[in-house]
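Continuing the batch. This is chain 6 of the set; chains 1 through 5 are on the previous pages. Same settings as before, nothing changed between runs. Recording input and output for traceability.
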Amino acid sequence: MDKHNCAFNDAQKFSLVKREAIYTGLALVGLIIFWLVAGFGTSAVDVKIFHLPLWAVLGTVGVWLAGIAIAALLSRKLFTDMDLGGDDDER
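Output for chain 6:
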């Protein structure tokens, strides 16, 4: 089935939305684990980046960058662009 511009029936749409929601939830769990490891797991490391401890950089900026990368990966590889339909499409 082509990823774009296909006509999906309601069962297929529900299945795709459910799959995307599950993978988004798993991505959130992965991001939380990354935050725990990056923030708390590197607290004993005596490395500084721009005069900030490694745990502070990885626990803040690192988590944001990881979240952006995960969102880009999900949107390019997993999410499907589809018309959800509706009664007010003609507005």
